[in-house]
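User: Second chain of the day. Same drill as before.
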Amino acid sequence: MNKKLKIFIIGILLILVTGCSGNYNLKINDDMSIDEELYLTIDNTNNTYTKTLKIFKENNIPEKDYEVVLSDNNVRITYNKKYDSMEEYILDSKIYHELIDEIQFNKSNDYIDLYVNQKLKLSNDNIKSNGTNLVDLDVLQINIENPFSVNYTNAEIVNDNVYTWTIKKGDIEKKIQMQFKPSLNVFPYKQVAVLSTVIICSLIIIFTIYRRYKKRQKI
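Assistant: Same format as last time:
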């Protein structure tokens, strides 16, 4: 094997084994609801794992929303959360507030703009004076899965409908931009499901009452 290739592979393995890295995934669904996922691989030295869990608890993140897997040197933390809308995600997501100062979300005509041009809180050096970051990360990969037509994005990698940005600890500021056009005919699946349930329950109640009434009439 080529010597340079060996060095490159060894370097990648060292990053994977000793570094703290994260994958932050957002999935925009057809009904504009949001699935949020965070995968952290943390070096379990210097109490990094303990500090990370402490921040989860300080932010009142329920234990049912995340899973912890321990190995000899590393800790893997997986977090999942669902939101009914983009607005709810921006207001309520505790994870995004730990990683990014602010996401600008604007609706203009038929388009939606997502824009981040703030300090990314990957290390203690980058956070504000009164902040505490989620974990001291070496690398954070942000993936946004978007089913709609994207008019513009500055994503570094585009794979089908997944848009990716890679942020390293030295990247104090990082622009994340995406403009897309949601379908005008987004079918309200949740609303229809709730309404259908209500109608079915009502019909069952009416039918039950009617049967009892008929039995009494026969008596």
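The longest helix spans residues 189-218.

User: Great, on to the next one.
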